[in-house]
Design goal:
The chain is mainly alpha-helical and 129 residues long. The protein has a domain of 59 residues. Helix content is 53%, strand content 0%. The chain has three helices and no strands. Helix 2 packs antiparallel against helix 3. The longest helix is centred in the middle third of the chain and has 38 residues.
Length: 129
């Protein structure tokens, strides 16, 4: 701040005694706000299609990925569920790890059967869209 000016007064702001001449500091006046947009850049945005049309293909792809994930998770849930049941039987009977191994094996067999059955049904399913 210039020591010659009174406190709170800024020589670059507000009207000056010599209105047609440059600011006392010699700098161009400060512009407030954003610059104006040239007319050739002013145009309206294209109207977006409705969401149903926009996401139709994306939805079909996402649904097929979710179906494949569901088949894979079904196998894992079968194995984990049977293993937990086997662990519970072993804990109650005190026969660790006999039932855990038996039920884990049944989980792998049952989960594998379900996986193959659902995967084949998924391959035979006609694509949507």
């Amino acid at each position: 701040m210039n020591p010659d000016t009174s406190a709170g007064a800024n020589p670059d702001e507000g009207p000056h005694e010599n209105a047609g001449e440059p600011n006392p500091s010699g700098l161009p006046p400060i512009r407030r706000g954003p610059p104006p947009i040239p007319p050739e850049l002013r145009q309206t945005a294209p109207k977006a299609p409705p969401p149903a049309e926009r996401f139709a293909k994306a939805d079909a792809g996402a649904q097929s990925i979710m179906r494949v994930g569901s088949v894979a998770l079904g196998f894992g849930y079968g194995v984990i569920g049977c293993a937990l049941i086997g662990w519970l039987i072993d804990w109650l009977a005190g026969t660790f790890p006999v039932w855990l191994l038996i039920m884990s094996g049944l989980g792998v067999i049952g989960g594998g059967y379900r996986f193959v059955k659902e995967a084949l049904a998924l391959v035979r399913m006609p694509p949507k869209g």
